[in-house]
Amino acid sequence: MSVTELRPRTPADTALVSLAEAAGSGEDARRAAIEALRREGLPHRRIEAWHYTDLRNLMGRRLGGNQLIEAVAAREFPQTGTVLAPLVAGSTVVDLDAPERASAPQGVTIAATDDLADWHESPNHLDRPVDTVRLVSAAFGARAATITVAGKAELAAPIELRGGIGAPSHSAVRVSVGDGATATFVERVEGGGSPAPSSAVSHLSIGDGAEVLWVIDQAKDEGAAHLGQLNVSVGANATFKLFLLNAGGQLVRQEVHAVTAGEGSEIIMRGVNLLEKDQHVDVTTTLRHTHPNTTATETFRNVLMGGHGVFQGMIKVSREAQKTDAKMACNTLLLSEDGDFSAKPELEIFADDVQCGHGATAGEINQDHLFYLMSRGIPAPQAKALLVKAFVDEMVEELEIDAALGEALTGKIDAWLEQSH
Amino acid sequence: MLEIKNLHARVADEGTEILKGVDLTVKDGEVAAIMGPNGSGKSTLSYILAGRDDYEVTEGDILYNGESILEMDPAERAASGVFLAFQYPLEIPGVATMTFLKTAMNAQRKARGEAELMTPDFMRRVKAAAAELKIDAEMLKRPLNVGFSGGEKKRAEILQMALLEPKLCVMDETDSGLDIDALKIVADGVNALRSETRSFLVITHYQRLLDYIVPDTVHVLYKGRIIKSGDKDLALQLENEGYGQIIGEAA
């Protein structure tokens, strides 16, 4: 048993456990998770699921020296608690530190719970027998909420979920959308840095025939670390759309694990990762097709001015999932020689009548396109900006979402492109 | 307007020399046709005029209104009035046609120290020019050239030319891939733009285009040099006799 195996502890492991122990109340409930964190430590490059994001090493750089222990003792974490305007005006804002205060729209119930994330099993196929993101969430006692959308409800405005604005923040939410309902959720991941990562673990269950758009808007401050995980089950003939924007943070891992829960379900995932110098941003996804006649399209576009980007995408098609149609793509625009990107697409197919594909590209701006724009009088910097914007804006367009939300997302992308040029 | 003097150029990467001493003068308001067999350097000449950096000028000069443009990048040349209508206009996904048109027009205006166009004025100009070229509004809503047919792309090039009001229009095989109706529309568009202050360099394989855009001068480019010049009758002679006779004379 691995429990009895002695593993070398690093200062980062020890420091993270110390931080977890010091993380406020409810320690009894968290005890098992803290012990598991102590026992298992942080994953490193020899754990395949974390090969490109060696958390032990990367956290070690953040948690180096005695700085951390002192910070724990003094509780001196920077607080950057400005109240944010919602991404889309008119949204229902749910502060996950105090979900009961949200004013739920009709057909929606919102409640606080004490449930901790279940870390005993990883949804990540190449991981250890424990799940790191959930383990951190449970060890730090993430504030948890449940949100239920009644069947056939049609929510006019998005529900915006906010983890604690200060640092470090840990949130966990369980969302259940009833059969035939329509809803949009916006997960805002903002806030300042602390030595330890913040975390957000979400479970989304989509009923038959329902349509859910889930947006993750990650714009952590420079220097912050964040671990996110979204687990989705998509009912029969239901549609799950995801938009993931990574435009901040220093060390970020966002996982998305989706599974079909009925025939005819559709998964549409689009994402944009914008990286600058010194950032490490990892997007890891698994799509599990377990029912016949399901479709999935997954495209991520990355723009690197520097830093290190990671994409790991797995499509698993089980034996009974005939007529699965799943496509995955990861396209990277390298605008600096300092940036690098690791892409690992994987297909695991056990059904014999399926269409699955993946593609990964990395390159510079298309010189033919650049010449064409410049030949019309558009100066090089402006022409390049136009092409980069086109490259990423397509991700928003392809989702065919509400105009106000689409504009808010392209606005965020534009702001990043403008400040980094 | 344009003076090309002893122009030598090669492919920047591999060094193959394509232009081997081109001499050509185009006066204000002149329509000059460049004809020649495949591989004679016609498209290369058009790219070099527009400033494409895949080619390296090793000798000679290009004077535009008396000044060398060799040190200018493509955007600077465009703002000064040089326009290249591409043989194969590029599809650029994600860039909306209208955004592109407005950005290009305003970038040129800005470079010339003129005020930017306001949206209503811009829209009015686009609508008028598009109507002339029988380009419908739906086409303009698409990303730049994406999903356009060959004919639509060529019409879109002429639309850009009409809106940008260049002084020197270089047209690289504008007739290729056009059926006769589309060719007439495109030629009418070009003819409408002819003026005493605007010159054209019309590059083509076939005499057919020159029935619709009647040139003042015709020049034969062969193996990187102009080997014969004449008036529009030279194009007819080429149509009847092929290039063999003229190439033989030049050799």
From TrEMBL, chain A:
<dbReference type="InterPro" id="IPR011542">
    <property type="entry name" value="SUF_FeS_clus_asmbl_SufD"/>
</dbReference>
<dbReference type="InterPro" id="IPR055346">
    <property type="entry name" value="Fe-S_cluster_assembly_SufBD"/>
</dbReference>
<dbReference type="GO" id="GO:0016226">
    <property type="term" value="P:iron-sulfur cluster assembly"/>
</dbReference>
<dbReference type="Pfam" id="PF01458">
    <property type="entry name" value="SUFBD_core"/>
</dbReference>
<feature type="domain" description="SUF system FeS cluster assembly SufBD core">
    <location>
        <begin position="169"/>
        <end position="391"/>
    </location>
</feature>
<dbReference type="InterPro" id="IPR000825">
    <property type="entry name" value="SUF_FeS_clus_asmbl_SufBD_core"/>
</dbReference>
<protein>
    <submittedName>
        <fullName>Fe-S cluster assembly protein SufD</fullName>
    </submittedName>
</protein>
<dbReference type="InterPro" id="IPR037284">
    <property type="entry name" value="SUF_FeS_clus_asmbl_SufBD_sf"/>
</dbReference>
TrEMBL record, chain B:
<dbReference type="InterPro" id="IPR003439">
    <property type="entry name" value="ABC_transporter-like_ATP-bd"/>
</dbReference>
<dbReference type="GO" id="GO:0005524">
    <property type="term" value="F:ATP binding"/>
</dbReference>
<protein>
    <submittedName>
        <fullName>Fe-S cluster assembly ATPase SufC</fullName>
    </submittedName>
</protein>
<feature type="domain" description="ABC transporter">
    <location>
        <begin position="2"/>
        <end position="248"/>
    </location>
</feature>
<comment type="similarity">
    <text>Belongs to the ABC transporter superfamily. Ycf16 family.</text>
</comment>
<dbReference type="Pfam" id="PF00005">
    <property type="entry name" value="ABC_tran"/>
</dbReference>
<dbReference type="GO" id="GO:0016887">
    <property type="term" value="F:ATP hydrolysis activity"/>
</dbReference>
<dbReference type="InterPro" id="IPR017871">
    <property type="entry name" value="ABC_transporter-like_CS"/>
</dbReference>
<dbReference type="InterPro" id="IPR003593">
    <property type="entry name" value="AAA+_ATPase"/>
</dbReference>
<keyword id="KW-0067">ATP-binding</keyword>
<keyword id="KW-0547">Nucleotide-binding</keyword>
<dbReference type="InterPro" id="IPR027417">
    <property type="entry name" value="P-loop_NTPase"/>
</dbReference>
<dbReference type="InterPro" id="IPR010230">
    <property type="entry name" value="FeS-cluster_ATPase_SufC"/>
</dbReference>
